[in-house]
Amino acid sequence: RDTDRSRGLGDVYKRQKMLRASVNAGLEYEVWRHKIGIGLLYTARVWEYKTMHNITGSVNFHPVRWFTVSGSYSVIDNRGGAVGLALNLCPNWINFYLATDVLTSKHTPQWVPIKQSSMNVTLGLGIPIGKRSHRIAAYVRESDRH
Q: CA–CA separation, 89 vs 66, rounded Å?
């Protein structure tokens, strides 16, 4: 049988597989003394001979430096969308976050989601390493500047 025959050094087993690639491009604009951020992210995932495009718009609200609430909506390859919500608490030396997204497959002509396909919930804990950002003066305490 072909599958059982041994292969010598002269035999070359050819197998080709295309690598998967992703392209991400995003921007965020902060307004109102760095308390509100409006963002846009474009993602293209390429595999085999297909490409999937995704555009995500987000609004981030951080009234104090250790608390952030984010909401987002993604359009996924003109086939569906996802609505997301996240909370981030980062008091001093530790970071807690809770995020969820709901994948929607049907919506009204006004783009109001009416059928849920799946939902993800993520809960996490992180320990930041290093000093907080010094690029934005509003995020730096007076004691950190010296």
A: 6
User: How far is it between the farthest Cα atoms of the chain?
Assistant: 77
Distance in angstroms (rounded) separating the CA atoms of residues 59 and 35: 11
pLDDT computed for residue 108 by the predictor: 74
The model's pTM is 0.68
